[in-house]
Amino acid sequence: MKVCIVGASGKLGQYMVQHCLDRGYEVVGVCRSKSIDKLDRFKDRITIFPGATNDREIISQAVAGCKGVLTVLVPWGVQQYSSGTAQAVMDFAEPGTRLIFSCGWHISRDNKDVYSWKLKTFEKIFEGLGRFFRLLEINDQVEACRRIFESDLLWTVVRGSDLEEGESQGLPVWSRHVGDPILKSNLTRRVDFALFMVAAIENDELIHEAPAIVGCQSPSALEHAKDQA
Ligand SMILES: NC(=O)c1ccc[n+]([C@@H]2O[C@H](COP(=O)([O-])OP(=O)(O)OC[C@H]3O[C@@H](n4cnc5c(N)ncnc54)[C@H](OP(=O)(O)O)[C@@H]3O)[C@@H](O)[C@H]2O)c1
Q1: Which of 39, 84, 135, 139 has its CA 20 to 30 A from that of 77?
Q2: Best mutation site among 30, 48, 72 for ligand 1, i.e. most ligand atoms within 8 A of its Cβ?
């Protein structure tokens, strides 16, 4: 199976490249030209399309023939980068392609998520400072997801908790809504966030879902597993 990773040079992207290669997938990556060397260790095993991820021409070429497209939605820059990226992927992916997008818990599909005051305050400060310094545009990530949620394509929006580095602990667990006790620990290894993204390609139960994930070894996930036993 041929899979495209849009935003392959970032931390999440690189983990996704590795997981895809481990599964024997043919991998195509899109990343900014200045970041190509971050993919040096994969260069003989993947095809790279250098360019901005919201460049429609690049995306149309990169997703051709792919059965899965993994897209890192980032709030960086004040240029509709996330929504432009998501729109290009949705416009050019071939019919029947599984589309998996990454974002954070702050994205809500149905407004039934329950956020702690800490999370809400942090987001407000982050958004305000980001806009002031013209560094990031969280509202555009919200707009990107609004468009995805409205589409009939075979999408999954994976909502990551706070992240940490470290060895894989296994496939994260998930819930439809932030506020569910299983998510209380709010921590996932980045390598496992990537694992969840890649595994979603072949998991049809996640079509039209926006799973909020947490590490399977986190205290809240273990507590939940104990209650189920
Ligand atoms: N960080 C967290 O704690 C956290 C928590 C929850 C969810 N998430 C989600 O996880 C995903 C990955 O986030 P991450 O924090 O782990 O970062 P990451 O994987 O390192 O990805 C950052 C991406 O942003 C690109 N980028 C950086 N600056 C940019 C700019 N000025 N203009 C355009 N692109 C730029 C990078 O491209 P280059 O390689 O070209 O620099 C890279 O593809 C995102 O969808 C994020 O919403 C993150």
Answers
A1: 39
A2: 72
Residue 9 near ligand 1, beta carbon < 6 Å: yes
* CA-closest residue to ligand 1 atom 29: 76
Pocket test for ligand 1, best of 74, 99, 141 (most atoms within 8 A of CB): 74
- Half-sphere exposure at residue 143, Cβ-oriented, CA atoms within 13 angstroms: 13
Q: What is the pLDDT along the chain (229 residues), one digit of tens a residue?
A: 999 999 999 999 999 999 999 999 999 999 999 999 999 999 999 999 999 999 999 999 999 999 999 999 998 766 888 999 999 999 999 999 999 999 999 999 999 999 988 878 877 777 777 666 666 677 889 999 999 999 999 999 999 999 999 999 999 999 999 999 999 999 999 999 999 999 999 999 999 999 999 999 999 999 999 988 8
Residue with tokens 């996932």, as numbered in its chain? 188
Q: CATH no. for residue 24?
A: 3.40.50.720
- Report the run of H or E that residue 6 belongs to, with start and end: strand 2-6
- What pairs with residue 71 in β-bridges? 6, 101
The domain containing residue 215 runs over which residues? 2-228
Distance 126 CA to ligand 1 centre (A): 15
> Is residue 35 within 6 Å of ligand 1 at its C-beta?
yes
User: Looking at residue 41, what DSSP letter applies?
Assistant: G
Instruction: Name the domain count of the chain.
Output: 1
